[in-house]
Each structure stands twice: as C-alpha cells, then as structure tokens.
Design goal:
Blueprint (H helix, E strand, L loop, with lengths): L2 E5 L3 H13 L3 E5 L2 H10 L6 E5 L7 H10 L6 E5 L4 H10 L3 E4 L4 H20 L24 E4 L2 E4 L4 E4 L2 E4 L2 H12 L4 E3 H8 L12 H11 L9 E4 L3 E4 L5
Parallel strand pairs: 1-2, 1-3, 3-4, 4-5
Antiparallel strand pairs: 6-7, 7-8, 8-9, 10-12, 11-12
Helix pairs in contact: 2-3, 3-4
C-alpha cells in the first residue's frame, strides 16, 4: 500500500481526493498548509511515497515546500497542482523540484494516472541497490551507450542512471528529479547537435504556448553544477548564443 500526502487548503477538494485515493488502495494523509506539510516531511521525517502539492497555500507556497524538500535532500515524488496554467508557473514548479504538474480544474482519472506514474518512481528508488561490492568502494560502471529504451549513459567518468534517477560521479551520487533526468535524456539523445530553447520546452516539458524561453536557463545552471568541473566555464553543456544549447559528452 502506498502512502500519499495531500497538501491542499481547500477542504472539500482535499477530502474528495482523500476519498478517491483511498478507494484506489492508497493510505492518505492531509495537510492544509505548507507549514504542516514541512512539519510532517522535514521535521518529523514521516515517510510518504508521493506528495500531491497545491501551489496556492496560506503561508508557505507549494513552491516553497518543494524547494525546501529538495534542499533537505528529501526526494519524495511531488505532483504539483496549480490554478495558474501559464508556462512560466509550470517551469517555476519544476525549478523548485516538482516532478510533474496538473492544472486545475483537472479530471480525477488524469490525476490518478499521473500519481501512479510517480509512485512507480518510488518503487524504483526503494528497489535500487547502491553501486559497490559491500566494501564502501564505488565500483566502475560498465559502459553502455544510451539507446531508445536504454537506462544509463556514461561520459567522462560520470554515469546517468535514468531509471534510478541518479547522476554518479567519482565518489558522489546526485539524486535527480524526473524533469532533470528527462532534460538530461533529451540533451544526451541530441549529443553534439544544437537544440533550441523552444524545442526543449516542447519536447521535455510539453509546453507549446508562447512563453519566455529563457525560463529554462535556471535548469541549465543547475545541471551545470551537477556535471561540470567548472560550471562558469562549461565544456559539456555549452551555450550557443542566441539559439540554445549543445551537449558534448567528450569535449576536446
């Protein structure tokens, strides 16, 4: 049985979601504001398999809650609910650490499908075994080129595991959000080619509306901190001025 936390200040919506998710076989808890959610998730460190998180909350917003969770290295999957469907708001949610979003009003069947997808991530994370041989020494990851349906990509001593949502460098493992992993997957599959900001918005986030495509630059800054030796002088994730970006696995 999966345990889900609903963070929603509209009591009728929270209780309706609780009833329907319990009918689907989930154990459900409810928090009516961001402070209560933080108390449960961060201070008491209660274990949940997924969080359904409204953006517009009294006190701390859903953006604040998601950002604090990631800052505290809590990688519980987060489905963000927003009454604001603007692409900028969607991207702000992903930048804060959300894994998926759903605009209000929504169809219950779609929410359940999105939540089930995130719960599968929880299963992967629980079943994942740390790399090593039991001695505490990280073993080399065998080279495996990413292909359609593949789950790892190795470059310059780093390994991206798209199934376990991990970026492994020498002596360090970084947990990725779903969107960070999908962004990296898109860059890897376009390796060596210039990709525009517009194509990233469409192919990674599914946003086709007119928006300020510079909103994705925050994601690029974060990914550079993950994969670059010197993020201020990137060699892997290069900016092509006025166009977009190019990913280079093995820079000269």
């Amino acid at each position: 049985m999966s345990r889900v936390l609903i963070v929603e200040d509209e009591a009728h919506l929270a209780q309706g979601l609780r009833f329907n998710l319990q009918a689907e076989g989930h154990a459900v808890d409810v928090a009516c504001d961001g402070e209560t959610a933080i108390e449960k998730l961060v201070e008491k460190k209660e274990r949940f398999d997924a969080v359904v998180l409204d953006v517009m909350l009294p006190g701390k917003s859903g953006f604040d809650v998601a950002a604090l969770l990631r800052e505290k290295k809590n990688y519980v999957p987060v489905l963000m609910l927003t009454a604001r469907g603007r692409p900028e708001d969607v991207l702000a949610g992903f930048a804060a650490g959300a894994d998926d979003y759903l605009a209000k009003p929504f169809e219950l069947a779609i929410l359940i499908a999105r939540l089930d997808s995130l719960l599968r991530r929880s299963v992967w994370m629980k079943d994942a075994e740390p790399a090593g041989d039991g001695t505490g020494v990280e073993l080399p990851v065998p080279e495996r080129q990413l292909e359609t349906g593949g789950d790892t990509f190795n470059f310059c001593g780093k390994s991206i595991d798209f199934q376990e949502l991990e970026l492994r460098t020498l002596g360090n493992t970084i947990h990725l959000t779903v969107m960070e992993a999908e962004f990296l997957r898109y860059l890897v599959r376009s390796e060596g080619r210039i990709v525009s900001r517009k194509s990233i918005l469409e192919e990674v986030w599914g946003l086709h509306e007119d928006t300020d495509t510079r909103a994705i630059d925050n994601f690029v800054v974060r990914l550079r901190r993950y994969i670059e030796e010197d993020p201020s002088r990137p060699k892997h994730l290069q900016t092509v001025r006025g166009v977009g970006y190019r990913f280079v696995a093995e820079p000269e």
